[in-house]
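Technical note accompanying the year-one report. For the benefit of new consortium partners, we illustrate the data format agreed upon in the data management plan: each record pairs a sequence with a structure-token string. No post-processing was applied to the example shown here.
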Amino acid sequence: MKRILLAAIAVLFVASTADAQTTKPKVTDLGGAPESIIWIGNSFFYFNNGMGGLVGRLNASAEAAKKLRSTEATISGSSLQWHDVESYFRPNAVGAFSFDAENNVVFNKNEKLFEVAVMMDCSQCPIHPELKSQFAEYAKKDSDIVRRHGGKPVLFMSWAYQNKPEMTAGLAEAYTVAGNDNNALVIPAGLAFARVVKEHPEITLYIADKRHPTLAGSYLGAATSYAALFKQSPVGLAYTAGLDPAVAKTLQEAAWATVQAYYGK
């Protein structure tokens, strides 16, 4: 009985944090679909073949698929402080070449190495009493670096731990404030997680450690990223990452509803 009561309280808490009003985002649009993205973060990005790969496949499955090249720079357990973002924009270095569908080397000669940099701090950094000041510092520092190289900074709002749903509201507020302070778009993935936990608890978003994403969790993050970056609904996209089509559709719908609600559409 006690276990059931605690579970009910947790669900109610998630509901309240998911619906809570946070600071409103000032930036709601990139001004156009990006053709190249670098994903800078940690294991939350590289699980399940990478957030960039999932977004790329969602984009490729759209009727009007956009040209898109993605690169990931991830360090296990890392905060933004661990990343040398300046080095990721060195000429003829990261992203200088890629491989086509036939495995041929393609040398990328783009005017901008990366049009967009999607950045995520460690899962606790934005709200940890001893680390949140570093989050603010490096969100600004790295956003400035990205802009100096002609790119647009984007912040990826991470999700709460499965057993710590109270993290949702704090992360949402911290990322939104940092986005506003740096004139950067914020991808509300954490709010999408909270929505699915509330509305579809039958879908498992977390692996056993209660932090890292299952394939469904990564797919939800990717669908939310696609909706935010491309300003297009992911609902109905053919790519399901091997998930049951009904589950994939539910995650697509949750991602689109979250993006619309967060940006006030």
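Partners are asked to follow this layout when depositing records. The chain has eight helices and seven strands.
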